[in-house]
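Appendix B, record 7
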Amino acid sequence: MKVNMKGTLLSLMGLGAVLLAGCNDKLAVLDPKGPQAQRQADDTILLITLMSGIVLVVFAMLVFMLIKYRASKQSPDYEPPHIEGHWLVETIMIGIPVIIVIFLSFVSVKSNYIVESIPQGYEDQEPLVIYASSSDWKWHFSYPEQDIETVNYLYIPANRPIEFRLYSFGSITSFWIPQLGGQKYAMSDMVTTLNLAADAPGEFMGRNANFSGRGSAENTFVTTSMTNAKFDEWVEEVHATADPITEEKFEKMLEPGHLGRETYTGTHLEFSPAPHHDHDSSEEDSSVEEHEEHSTK
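Structure tokens (predicted):
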């Protein structure tokens, strides 16, 4: 039996080309622009490298077995000698997978604590709190500190931690800005917290990563990171030009459908506060109440 290594390699390369053909010029999760995304990208590269090594070893062993134990010209009644298991081989076969699982578990748990905390390098800064709420099929961003609300677009200052507080006015959605960090669910009866930061100015695509009806594919938004000076200029411009948000306007927005970019002064938190839930810590609840009180002033 002949093994065509060249044909096998060409097949694998062709398969890889097909799989990558549908990707963008840059795979967003591997083009991080913030510390949380950088950690996740590093873990992804580690996993790809480790799994690729395992696959190569398995393929090498498969080729070795096919060649060494291929059909021979032995007589039809030939019976190979029975060989009992070897303790060293069995130890390696069981021990290596166990070591791999322990290693990946350690990396996963450590990374989970890191990405759930304030981004590394920003611990000494006060985070900017933004309430990100979803409806069919829109994103509403409320800035209690700036007394501003935007629809389907997000402006943030670079080099400052951002604390997103997520919830939904309908079905469960998943808030995701791939170049800044991982996704997290937004639900209707509780607030979940996501800590992110952008290391430099730029534009990053965000979306709802969860299927939530026929319009979920277009449930996207653009995140623009800018310098603190430009962010302050934008806040001043909004207060000088935008109309205030009203309960009637907001109720109209919650109806299923798509909207373009919209900007308002004030936030819907004044008349439609974020939900509270027993799963939230008392410290977070008090912080929510504090920002809601601030937005009503």
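Remarks on this record: The CA atoms of residues 94 and 222 lie 48 Å apart. Helices lie at 5-21, 35-68, 87-116, 228-241, 247-253, 282-296.
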